Give the backbone structure.
Amino acid sequence: MKGYSWVLLLAVASMNCFAGFDEGSAAYEAKDYTTALSEFLPLASDGDAKSQAKLGVMYYNGEGLPQNYSQAASWYRKAAEQGNAEAQSYLGDMHIKGDGVAQDYGKAASWFSKAAEQGDSSAQYNLGLMYIKGIGVPKDYSQAASWYRKAAEQGNAFAQTNLGLMYIKGIGVPKDYSQAASWFQKSAEQGDNRSQYLLGLMFNSGEGVEQDYGKGASWLTKSAEQGNAFAQFNLGDMYIKGDGVSKDDNQAFHWFRKSAEQGNAEAQSYLGFMYNRGRGVPQNYSQATDWFRKAAEQGDAYAQYNLGLMYFNGEGLPQNYSQAASWFRKAGTQGHSDSLNNLGLGYEFGQYGAKNLVLAHFFYNLAAVSGDKQNKENRDRITLQLTSAQLNEAQELASKWVINQPLPTFTKTYPSAKKRK
């Protein structure tokens, strides 16, 4: 009888422990942190790992008590050392960020590994990230894909998106657009805005799925409405062209503006274009200049070219050929053919200072690479006006220049000589 009573007491104690944890969990979910704390704290103090993990969460978030990362880490460690996967995952995250503990990628990877091997999808995802970046572990794309897959198969949307990206790029797995689309679809249906954006692009391009602009627009809209700046820009572009949606400049302007306000350079450039042309908004050169400048300062060649044109024509700001040439040069350095052509024109007719036919030929020659007939005609016209020495110099400059390298600002000085015929 005594032995039976002892077993019965243990069973009752165990049931009370579970009851206390369940009551604490219910209170926590109801945001009744005072009750949750009163249930978790005695259990955690008695060594209950699940309660220790929950107490760590409450300290980390400052729920029902002052936020304290050190205390959170302490309770997580107690639970983690008992094998609690949730606490192991959280502790790994704290070592990544250096919250309440010293930042230590090696320890983070170690705790993530322990949790991941128990099937914790968040830890599996984070371990995949560490293998992708080579932090705390050697860079290993195959390992990254393996851990992403484990998390993705449990429904982790972030892992599904990243696994899809690995199939797009062919790193750690064979390149496979169909597989990429499949994983993006799973994540997109859970509301992940990155996958919604990427799936929209795939429907637009017909890669991995049958091309369908309507579905592309639908997924881009879902992503854009969640604030994805890239989706907002691409959706605006679809409204400009009428791909998958009715052509609508007002809607295009709306989405370009949302994207531009988040700093997207392409959207800023397109917004400048719409203000410049009065599409979807009253024409406003001053606004066009402002948006072109924002994009141009981020290195957008199309915006740099348009800002150069506005300085050249005196639209929205004082005419200034020097400023025009400066912006044309920035865009021309990236190989923007219209900017290169405008530089050729300016040097041919002396708008950027003294005439310089060698530079004019050089810029026309680079612009002609685009295949534009007018650029080739400009180059051929200048060829007839150059001496053999000047032509050799212009051709040598063009042969040595590579994209994203500085463009020449001067050439040699030549004595008078008979022009070529």
